[in-house]
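Lab channel / #folding
Pinned by the channel admin:
"Please post every new chain as: sequence first, then the structure tokens as a reply. Keep commentary short and put observations after the output so the thread stays searchable."

First post following the new format, from NK:
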Amino acid sequence: MKRIISFMALTLCSIAGLFAQNNTTYSVIGVHYNSAGELVITDPCTTLQVQLTVEKVQTVVGPYAKYAQKFLDVRPALVGRTSYAVTDAQIAIAKANSTIKEKRNKRTRVDSYLGSDTEFARISAERTSSSIMSIEDAAQQAAQAIFSIRRHRMELITGEAGENVFGAGLKDALAELDKKEQDYMELFLGKKITTTTTHTYTIPLALDITEYTIARISAQAGLQPATSGEGDVIKLSLTPSPTAPKLNYTKEVEATNKLATAIRLANNSTCSVVVAERVVGDVAVLPIYELGRTTYVLTPTIKK
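Reply from TO:
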């Protein structure tokens, strides 16, 4: 009996190897004995891991924004706003799990801003007296400081500033002027804060299901649970390959021959993340057993 079981295992492994050599076919044989001592075939399962990248862009209005056009001839944002979007998605095979899980990471980037991401730099304009200025007067002095910085920069570059500054000294001087100008400009133009978060979902697949709702994304409120009614649906979409392998062994083999063995063939399916009918991120082609088929093959035996 042991010789029969050993030969059976060797034969089944050989069959699986033949399937694995085909770029469009994957097979798994899951064999175990139940409490009655009967040989049972367990079909394999697939669990996917989906990683979403969500970007939050926050526009902060500068305190002198309403005077930017008057003193600098530019039109900055006068109203702060925050928007969210899914910017990337990655799909891979994951370990089996019974429920959808979420794991997140976060990083923040502040564009065109030197300092805290919650407050503007405390810059005092060039003041000539201790009198309290109105916001408009302070904005005007800040604008004058910007023009003064630009003149000094040009004088350094053209050598009109007196003693010429060369090499690293010139580079450092220009960098300091750029930093100071940026500090003043942000008082008029505001700043943009970009926060990027990654959310990883583990999704166990079900038989013959090709769409799974992962979550929702609202442009105003950000990532929402799948059960929320707010925002666009984020879906995992699976498209089975139409060229799945066909083996002409049917259940009739199982019915007429007790030595028939079942194997599961995976379907190489196109997997993508769709947000509001738009594919986001990379499209992956992965072997999905839930979209494949179970077939039966005859198991040869050795008679004693």
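NK: The CA atoms of residues 127 and 141 lie 8 Å apart.
TO: also worth noting, Residues 124-187 form one domain.
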